[in-house]
Model the fold of this input.
Amino acid sequence: MNTPVTARTPNPIAAAGTVVLTLVFGFGIQLLLPGETGSLVALALLLGLVIWTAWRKGTGLSEIGLNRPASWLKTLMLGVAWAVFIFLLFRLFLQPLLETITGVERDLSRFDYLKGDETALANTLIMLWVSAALMEEVLFRGFLVTQVAEIFRNTRAGWVTGIIGSAVIFGLVHAYQGLSGVLLTGLAGVLFGFIFVFHGRNLWVAVLAHGFTDSSAAFMVYLDIYERVTSLVWQAST
Done:
């Protein structure tokens, strides 16, 4: 895994304070405004905190990995390739495995309104790409992973800690999906963090992989085939 080294001198104390402030602020809003509304408000306000932090450091969007990639085509192809890998590994293997181990099915009933509704699907796809693919990747990978790594002065251990720590939080904020959903989303968070760091902190690869992954899930719910697809390989092998 290629762990990038920033030219700016790390400030562990400021980074730790920023992480604590982010967690208190984010979970506080979720307690005050539970549900999807609270999640969107928290994401929007935390995004403002991310931008303010980058402005304070004078690093701009490169601080969170949104600098322009050397090749947009290559970045797109990498995003698609990772999304296919995630679909094969997570949808066809890990999800049914975790559901079997925990005895709890992943709960996506929040998205039942998508079934057979083209307008709802179109609106949801827009929201997925903005709030999930872009905003979640900026917050959980581009921001939190980077801040935690800075606490450990950008060492390899710091990057690993950042990836795992942000993935744990990422999983917990998806608690509405049940235990299997939390575990699955947490593992996805680890992979997205790895993608972010492995590709030289080019967040666009993770954004695209996240967007295509969630879009495929939305299409499967719309077609009412999500459960059948995710259990297809597992049932055939048991």
